[in-house]
Amino acid sequence: xxxxxxxxxxxxxxxxxxxxxxxxxxxxxxxxxxxxxxxxxxxxxxxxxxxxxxxxxxxxxxxxxxxxxxxxxxxxxxxxxxxxxxxxxxxxxxxxxxxxxxxxxxxxxxxxxxxxxxxxxxxxxxxxxxxxxxxxxxxxxxxxxxxxxxxxxxxxxxxxxxxxxxxxxxxxxxxxxxxxxxxxxxxxxxxxxxxxxxxxxxxxxxxxxxxxxxxxxxxxxxxxxxxxxxxxxxxxxxxxxxxxxxxxxxxxxxxxxxxxxxxxxxxxxxxxxxxxxxxxxxxxxxxxxxxxxxxxxxxxxxxxxxxxxxxxxxxxxxxxxxxxxxxxxxxxxxxxxxxxxxxxxxxxxxxxxxxxxxxxxxxxxxxxxxxxxxxxxxxxxxxxxxxxxxxxxxxxxxxxxxxxxxxxxxxxxxxxxxxx
Length: 420
Description:
Layout: H1 2-16, H2 27-32, E1 33-38, E2 41-46, E3 49-51, E4 56-58, E5 66-67, H3 68-85, H4 88-103, E6 114-115, E7 121-122, H5 134-153, H6 155-172, E8 182-185, E9 188-191, H7 195-198, H8 200-217, H9 223-235, E10 255-257, H10 263-274, H11 277-296, E11 302-308, E12 311-318, H12 328-341, H13 344-354, E13 378-379, E14 385-386, H14 391-405, H15 408-418
Antiparallel strand pairs: 1-2, 3-4, 5-6, 6-7, 8-9, 10-11, 11-12, 13-14
């Protein structure tokens, strides 16, 4: 009886402490990670594709074995994972991947995306050219995000990171100043000063990068560019109270897509620095109106809209395929909203959206495995999954979970909702 009483006491103490077992498992991401020699240094890479059922590596034909797009996000994840438990291996990976990101910066200030097995940088393939594009913005965001952690133990590498960032920032500063010019796409007046010929999605990643850069340097020269990019993002929000899509931020021209749709998250980052209430109210509008509708619809992957007068109508929409990269940006936005407002409804909404990983999706099947650390590459349709588990899907799932677990209440709610 005494033994039973002690066990019961321990159980109740366990519950009262609010302890939550982490749902983050790095086993598969660790499997995708490798180190190679390049540029007179040992660099960390993450293999792009891994195919079911044994998850062997598959290179991207004509592109290379790894890319900035994946390594930048992996470095951000491992940096947060390191602070979660001071994991020495995680710190080592952060520094090795930082060396990769510094290595692939081109003389023009932007970043090439891919590297080959022999350690040479792919400078010619169309998805690897050093230009103002996704991979350059992600490299900047990642390097700025990991800088302080690296600086604490490796000042020389930190100095290389800062030099790389400064070179990139100087290159990008003149590119996207607000010019009050617009182009019309199916009735929408789209700002003509955003990256990638009118892309609010890319502008959002660049805003996040510049906000991180400002946080570590206090460099005010980036403020006008942040304001310019945010003005463009605001101009791409759907404002029609009678439309199902009211509050949605268009991604590119008159289209919306789930993947990389970080506009609300970026505006919230900018709000923290600039305290412009328009950024907060517009971000919360999308989170409050569009996210619940999207969840109720079983999520969508892409759509095109048309504006006639003030009324917004759907041209076409696509429900599949669905991927973790379409879920993580919404979770980030909800967590960011919770941190700023203190309103727990945003944390709960982030938890609910993360449920897509655990079976609250059109297939009813788990996409992320707590036991294996894999995240399937996507949902093909209501009945089938793409069971490959490459870098992007794995990292995006882990980043979503990490953002929720970084808040004690979020970690507890996440475990209660989807833990064993």
